[in-house]
Amino acid sequence: MTRAQQVGVIIGLSIVAALTMLRASDPPLLRLARNLTFDEYQRIKPRTFENMPVRIVDIDEASLRELGQWPWPRDRIAALVDRLSEMGASAIAFDILFAEPDRLSPRNVVRDVGGIDPSLLRQLPDNDEIFARAIADRPVVLGFGISNEGNYRPPVKAGFAFTGESPFGAPPRLEAATPLRPQLEANAAGLGHISLNPGATSTVVRAVPLFLSDGEQFYPNLALEALRVAQGASTYVLAAAPDVADTLTDAKIGDFIVPVTAAGELWLYVSPDHAERYVSARHVLAPGGAPPEVRAAIEGSIVFVGTSAAGLQDIRTTALGQNVPGVSLHAQTVEQILSGHFLSRPDWADGLEILSIAIAGTLLVVLTTFVSPAVALACGLAITALALIASWLAFLYGGLLFDPLAPIVSASITHFAATAFRFLVTDRERRAVRRAFGQYLSPSLLYRIEHTRDALRLGGDDRELTVMFVDVRNFTEISEQMAPTAVVGFLNTLLDALSRHVIANEGTLDKFIGDSIMAFWNAPVDVADHAGKAVRAALGMRETLLRLNADDAFGFGKEQNIAIGVGIHTGIACVGNMGAEAHFNYSAVGDTVNIAARIESSCKDVHFDILVSEETAQALPGHALLEAGMLALKGKSTRTKLFAVVGDEKLGASTEFAELRCLHLKLIEALRSRVPNRKILSAAKLKAAKLDGLTDFYRRISRRADHFVDHGKTG
C-alpha cells in the first residue's frame, strides 16, 4: 500500500465515521428528508379509496348557509343524533368539543333577562339536557381536547389490558384535558381525544397518536373509540415490548389488531380525499327526511361528525399534499384499520440504516482506493438502486418504511470524496490525457486506446456483432415543413434521447447519418448477450418515443406523432479503425451491416417498428417475438426470415402473449396454405389490440401472404 493510498483510506474512513455518527444523532434535517421521502412514496402509490362502512357527516358551507351559522344549538345536534340513530349508524363520533354550556339554549338566553321568575326558568328547555338525553343508550362518542391549564382528566369508558413491560410512558403525555359538560360526558358511550399531531412541528399529519397517557391511565383517540363502540367491545388490549419498558408494538380493538409505533402512533396511509366519504349535514337534517342514498350510506356505518367549512379552521395537510378537514383523518384512521393496509417503521430500521451507511461507505473507500473509481461508481450506483428498490418494494408489498436517502447521500459523499482524493493525488497525469483526447473520441474508443497497445493504427478484426439501424419515418415530409434550424433542433432532441439507450445497454454508437443512427454491440470490447442488449435498447427507444410524443416534446402538436423503424441483425463483420492515417473512424463494415440496414427498411413493408433477423431472434429466448415473414432484402439472393419484437421476456412469459402467439402460428399456417383465414385473423386482431403497435401489423398481414411462402431464390 502506497503512502497516498494509506492517506486516502484514513480520510475516507474518517468521512464514513462522521456520516455514521451524523445519522445516529438523527438531526431534524435528516428526519425531514426521510419524512418527505415517505410522503413521496404515498403520492406515487396512495391507499386506494374503498367504499368502507365509514362516513363523515359534514357541517359544510352549504349546511351553514341553510341551517345557520356555527355553533348550532344543541337541540339541533340532538336531532342529528336522532336521525343518524334512526338510519342505523353503528357509531356516531363527534369531532367537536362540547366544553361550554349551549349559549343558545332557551334557559340560558332567558336567564340573562332581569326579573324572570326562577320557577319559569326551570320550565324552559335546556339544549344540553336535550342533547344528553339524545345520546343516552346510543353508540355516541364525544371528543375532548388537550389543555395546558388545570388538571382535569376525562373518564375512560373502556378497560385496558397489556402484555409485556409497563407501557404507560410510551404515548404522548396528557397533562390536562378540556372538560366536557357533565351530563354529556356521563351519557356518552365513548370518549376520545381529537388531537391529530400534538407537539409536532410539522403541519403535515403523518402519524396520529392512538393513545395519550398521564402515566397511570391510557386515553384513546376519537377514531379508536368509534371503532370500539361500533363493535360493542369493552377492552383495549395493548402489546408492549417484552423486555423494554414504555414501548408499544400493537393494539387490539375488538376483532382488529393495529400495528403502532413505539409511542403508540399509527402511521397514516391516506387515500385521496373522496366525495363518497362525505354526507352533507343538511341532507341528514332535511325536513322531509334524508334521501334514500343518504340512508343507504349511513346504515351500518361508523359516522364521524365534523366540519369542512373553511371559517371553522379545522383543515389539515396530508402526506399527499392535500388540505383536508381534520375529521377526514379520523375517518381515514378507521378506514385504514378496516382495510388492513398499514404502514410501519420497525424499531430496528434506524440500526439497519446506520449499519448500511458504515458498510457501504467502507466498501466504497476500499474500492476507490485499491480498484478504480469506475468500479466504485458502479457499486455506488448499485447501492443506490438497491436502496431505492428495496425501500420501495418494502413499502409497496409490506407497508414498511425504510429510508433510502441517508445511505444514498452518505455513499455519494463518500464516493465523491474518495474519488476526488484519488484523482487529485494519484491520477493527475491520466486525467490530463483524458481531458486532451476526450473532446475528440468516444468513451469506448478512448478506453481501447488507453488499454490496448498499437490501438492507433488502421485495420480491423472480424468478430460477431449485433448491428442496429434506426431511421425516422417520413422524415422528408416532416423536414419540408420546417426551417433548417428547427430540423436540427428536432433531430438533436430525438437522436439524443434514442442514442442514450445504446450507451445504457453497452452499445457502441457508430455514426449519425442524417435522421438515422447506426450502432453495434460486442466491439471494441466483448459484450455478453449483445443481441439481447441491442433489443433492450430498441425497446427502450420505443418507450422513450411514446413519452416524447405524449409530452409533445417536438412541438408538432399531439396529433402528429413521430415514428421510427429499427432493424437488428447478428453476424460476422469487420470492425476497427478505418479511413486515412491522418483521420479515421472506429466503425464496422460487411454484409452484416448491410442486412441490418435492409431490415430497417423492411419495417415499412411489415408495418412494425422493430424487426430482427432469424440469427438475432435465436439469441433472444423468452422474448415476445412474432414471425413477420420471409422478405426479399435488396442485394440478397434469398429471402430473409424476420421477426417482430413485441416486447421483452416478461411480456413473452405472459398468458396474453402466449395466446396471441398461438393464434399467430395458426394464421401463418393459413396464409401459407392459402386457406381462408378471416376468423383466425379477427381473433388475432382482437388479441393484438391489447398490445401496442400491432394494429397495423395485423390489419395488413393478409396482403403479405406472399411473405410467408418459401420461394427459395429471388434472383
UniProtKB/TrEMBL annotation:
GO biological process: cyclic nucleotide biosynthetic process; intracellular signal transduction
Chain segments annotated as coiled-coil in the UniProt record: none
Domain of life: Bacteria
GO molecular function per UniProt: adenylate cyclase activity
InterPro entries xref list: A/G_cyclase, Adenylyl/Guanylyl_Cyclase_3/4, CHASE2, Nucleotide_cyclase
The protein's name in its UniProt record: Adenylate/guanylate cyclase domain-containing protein
UniProt organism field: Sinorhizobium mexicanum
